[in-house]
Amino acid sequence: MATAIKKPLTAAQFKKKVLQHLNFTSSQTDYQQDPTAVLRAVCLTVNEVVYEKLTETNQYHKEHKSRSINYLSLEYLMGRMLSNNLHNLDLFDVAQKAVANLGFEIEDIFEEGHDLALGNGGLGRLAACFLDSLATMDFNAVGYGIHYEHGLFKQQFHQGRQIETPDEWREYGNPWEVCRPEAVQNIPLFGHVETIANTDGSVKKVWHSGQTIKGVPWDVPIVGYNSKTVNVLRLWESRASSHFDWEQFNSGDYQDAHSAQNHAETISKVLYPNDETDAGKELRFIQQYFFCACSVKDIIKRYSQQHGNDWSQFADKVAIQLNDTHPTIAILELMRTLIDEYDFAWLDAFAMCRKVFAYTNHTLLPEALEKWSVDLFNKVLPRHLELLFSINEYFLNEEVSKMWPGNDQMRRRLSLIEEGETQMVRMAHLCVVTSFKVNGVAQIHSDLVKSDLFPEFDQLYPEKLTNVTNGVTPRRWLKACNPELSKLLDSKVKVDWAKDLSSLSSVAKFADDEKFQQKFMAIKHNNKIKLAEEILASTGVEVSPDAIFDVQIKRLHEYKRQHLSFMHILALYRRLLADPDYDMHPRVYIFGAKAAPGYYLAKEIIYAINKVADKVNNDDRIKGKLKVVFMPNYRVTLAEKIIPAADVSEQISTAGKEASGTGNMKLALNGAVTIGTLDGANVEIAEEVGDDNIFIFGNTVDDIKALEANGYNPYDYYNNDEEIKACLDWLHTDYFTPGKPGELSAIAHSLLDGGDPYRLLADFADYAKANIALDKAYKDKARWARMAIINTAKMGKFTSDRSIQDYVDNIWKLTPMSSQG
Ligand code: F58
Q1: Which of 587, 575, 628 is nearest to 606 (CA)?
Q2: pLDDT tens for residues 374-393?
Q3: Residue of 71, 123, 281, 324 to mutate, ligand 1, most atoms within 8 A of C-beta
């Protein structure tokens, strides 16, 4: 594929630079034995190109005083960076040759890299895809986040149970980041607020903080694909504002000399601290404030460098996107800064915030909507709490009461404060009130945000609630992870599809072309062979690449219903035991999922899948027709290996619960056929690929509402469906856990006496039926190949470039670098 931008280095030059770095940066001459040193030297070589482009990007935006988007997210799941950066700089083949010349396979060098796993799941990965698109599309953007010392835990299985160990992603440094001491910030915490009367009768508030924390920025360059831009992801690390007490240390008091430092450094120590205790809650809250305050100060500093003290253009030059409610305190921090430090009148400061902030909602689950106690707010951020109350007063009196005069119930419902035994701050309400736009992440989700989550807000602010359907970057999720398929697509599509994904639609005309089908499916088969090797290495289970590879990869959560697939596996196993000739194409179920460390049932589901896997995989009676593997430590890097090899994509959440999903897009893009409910972005995927190329089953959002209105009773399904009853009863026996009956009972309890909160049993029969249809379709090779090809061809809508363009057009109103002259 022709690229517009000239290759920055030849293979010979690249190799020379790698050798120079090995010699002069690492003093490693014996590199043949040391792929880690080679990786480092390759990264440093790439960085030479990257930093030159970063300087040019910064220069350009300084000169043009470009409007910037500032993406605030507590999570970024970047994965590994090298392969992606090489592709984006069009240096992949150059590096491959250079490294081969040094005696290494480039893939082996990649394997030495660590995942940058500073996130939990979809929300964090979305942020990473968005940064890739923003740089690719030449927009002026900064990502802000936390420089966690430990990212998402590593997962191992011990006798089938999840064990968590700390992630040490930068124990020995990270070549992709650079510290920026010139941009350090000091962040106050705790203390009290003094009210000082001015001579004109007004009052001035002064916050006397009790502690100051230093925020140290680390910049990770974000390289655009075939673009002019390198942006940065700025991650804040917390440190003590003054160094340890020298005198105390010298007097022999080593412990206490370090204590302030330890306390400060705890803030950026771990991603998502366990917030079941009060101390954990306080830490998470301080994390949020710490990174918001650092980022707001940094945004103001960058603005002031260009505009001095002239605030008139601030809202024209700065947009701040809140990735969920986690960075909501940034609103209060900007408000506080404008009023307390720049003497803004309250109304002007509030109006400014309303022009700058926009908020993305990622969930309707009530338990995931953040609330912080007023007491905690008051302890950590007393001044911010005052401002919050003032916003609430204005909002309730000037907006709610004017729209619904005399309606106290409405005031109570919409208030930023939830009254009760303990007063709680509703962070989502603060976001909706103070943002100029609020978006959901798929059409059905955004519709539900309007109709079910915030209907009154939608009435109050009719233009505010909107939709931006998520997307994924085709650079990482096709070009880099599936090179063979990429080459095949290159041969058929004459434009650079990685930058214009809708161009893949032209491949649909080859969907019935026998030769193309063969090529497409041969690539899938090769990818399956590679994955089978990986499965053998990580689980010890041998699987056949001729079987259907049925994939469910995502966080483990009841609403995502890994246990629906698990129940169906039990049903298949039963059918096979009853009739070893039961007509089904061999199937391998491949799971990848981490459960939150404190989420009991999620961990029980992992355990149950592993136990059933042990039994099924070793049962000769079923002639290898069914295999189940749970691949440990699911992460971006593993996703990159699984996705190109998937035949079937399981997207089986309870309708109305999965906001969008993005794995669904990645899998379909790589030619997997979805079996799914009408939930999240599945709905839009179905629209794009057409009903013939997807297996939709189960209750819709409205069906679920109707079921609930009639009083949902899981026993209705248990008593009336022999297969459901048998599978659930099976879990109480010791069939899968010899000598330990009842070890898998937790799932059955939750589905029966627990009320089956995610309506799994109501969807079981239809899911089983859809699986029969799927099995039949797979057996028809030409039909399946057609379906797989159409899935790849019709994923144009789901590039994150389109999502970003939607944000730009409807929310941020940015102009790309190239159009600014
Ligand atoms: C996910 N949310 C949604 N949250 O569940 C998924 O449907 C959507 O596609 C994705 O966002 C991107 O919009 C999500 O990943 C989290 O990880 C939370 C982080 C903070 C703790 C609770 C989970």
Answers
A1: 628
A2: 999 999 999 999 999 999 99
A3: 123
